[in-house]
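Wed. Picked up where I left off yesterday with ATP-binding protein. The coffee machine is broken again, so keeping this brief.
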Amino acid sequence: MEVKIGVQFAPRELVLESTQSQDDVEQAVAEALAGKNNLLSLVDEKGRRVVVPADKIAYVEIAESELRRVGFGTP
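Structure written out below (tokens, as returned):
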């Protein structure tokens, strides 16, 4: 699953591929924004941890990864 995190005052968004479910990511974001945690912590598919201060989060986009097609074909 692809997760994009916009961080205040940062010129680019953070993009990571996570093996966590959409519900798990959404719950982690909700808890961080509700003040239960001061940090949003997610793990990417390679096991790297991304930590963002909750008060600096501008937006979070959660999307299923699209299969990339190679070559020509009909949809």
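Quick read: Helices lie at 22-34.
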